[in-house]
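question for whoever is on the cluster today: can someone run the full assembly for these? two chains, 628 residues total. i dont have access anymore since they changed the login thing
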Amino acid sequence: MRKIAQIRPGGSLVLVLFAVYMLVPLLATLNFSLTLGENYTTVAYEKLLRNEALFEALWHSLLLATLTVLGSLILTLPTLYWVQLKLPQAKPLLEFFTLLPFIVPPIVMALGLIRIYSSGPFPITGTPQILVFSYMMVSLPFMFRAIDNALQSIDTHTLTEAAQSLGAGTFTTLRYIIIPNILPGIVSGSLLVFSSALAEFALANLLVGSAWTTFPVFVSNVGRADGRQAAALAVISFVITWLVSITILWSANRAPGQNNISLNR
Amino acid sequence: MSFLVLNQLKKAFGTALAVDNFELEVAKGELVTFLGPSGCGKSTTLRIIAGFETCDGGQIWMNQQEITHLPANRRKIGMVFQSYALFPNMTVAENIGFGLKLAKEKPPIIKKRVNEMLSLIRLEVLAQRYPHQISGGQAQRVALARALAPQPQLLLLDEPLSALDALIRRSLRAEIRQIQQQLGITTIFVTHDQEEALSLSDRIVVMNQGRIEQIGTPFEIYNYPTTNFVASFIGTLNMLPARVTNAAKGEINLGGHTVRVAGPLSQSDNTEITLALRPENLKIVEVEEEGLSATENFVHAKVKEVSLLGAVVRVRLSLAEVLLELDMFNSRHLTLPVPGAEVKLSFPIDSGLILTKPNTTIP
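^ ran it for u. tokens below:
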């Protein structure tokens, strides 16, 4: 059985204060969404659940997030694998690119994308496709770091050479050896990308707006009309985010060494 | 044509020449070891054979087919790595069967072959374990079985025992040799450990700074080194300063003693040389006379220190201010020399090696 670390009284106080700081706004939001005057009621939730636009917006966001994850994986995984094996000198350049989404403000990014994709061979401004590509850019740091860390935690070079010596080509090696061994990293990266795409508002509002409403845009629209429904939507968002976070924590806390070779026996 | 032919292989990393004009022919079923210090090019040469590195010049022929530019995954070569490189996501059985699965063998054939390999390495009970659940020695045996399962033409081992402790290394080394001989598979073994090389190999290739110093059987390499590097790298050598006194008769002055070495010397009289003697060629003797005899040289020395190393007793002596070591077998009836005692030493005339500059050929 794992030994639980003993927490000092001072540490306990810090944890309690932290919990209060995090939970009080959430509980206040939940309380607000359930109260009408002095009574508790679920009418805000009932109105939402009868609103087909909610489900359409949620479906749009889920679809967008899924496509963003798939696109990020297809772009990042083979690239990082190749760089790890053959072009390690390109790594600093890749890391620079992954920092760009943090440097460029969303509104600047949106205006740049509108300008480029409103004409030319790919006129996708105002369509959901532009959101997929822009979300892939914005979430690139998360997928990059998760997969890069996972690739570095296994002996990618030697495992690849071992697979090659047995007759495996690049695709076979990726499929049977590399991907299974970096699965926790892929899952972590995917969930981070999924949750950030699910919650992204600025680009969705600027690039497509009401033409193809996403969940965060829907929340914003509802919030202008009905505060309680907006609070209810915030609680729903928290629940989805918590579920995603718990899944990330579970995948990140798998027993160490389960998928790693140890030389010290 | 030999089974494996390496013809003038050359490889440089930037301006550093890692492999220079490497030429070797290996017969079918032979075990050849590449031996040398770190950075000598032995692993690079092995990786070129495996296809993991390209060569800048030269050719590789295997079974009369040129494979110089063939991708690694098409060379049908089995490889065992220093870090075992077992696939963590697969069981022992799945690891061993992976090469056969890639070759699209039928499942019953794969199962039969995997069982044969498990039986060969005597690890049948571990078939369903994962790599993190077995020991280092077991992992290396699984790695060997995995490399052998697809019946490769050539087996390459890149310092496979370096990560293991001494006891396991010794037992596994014998096991590798026994399996190699049983299967008759042509094998190249890379190591920096002389004992491994001398005990395992049919032939040894001693390398230094990317070049071959000598190729020979373990007996030849140890007893008849042809370059100063091989002489000083293999085993222990006493390096004793001496001076040629009569080159035609092979006589030299060693610490005030006149001794003989084999054959007339190529160096001229009064040349300063180094006489190299293996510790096991020196003996402490009881003789009445010093000087020259038909087969042995005799000199006077003083015992400085006696160390018991188990089966061997190592005696440090001084011969005219020069320190040398003598090894003798331990036994119950042995009378140990006493530190400070004056003793007489003998060594065979033909046991001395004349060394001049490093990396030059021994005459």
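summary bc i know u wont read the tokens: Strands of chain A lie at 35-36, 39-40. The radius of gyration of chain A is 22 Å.
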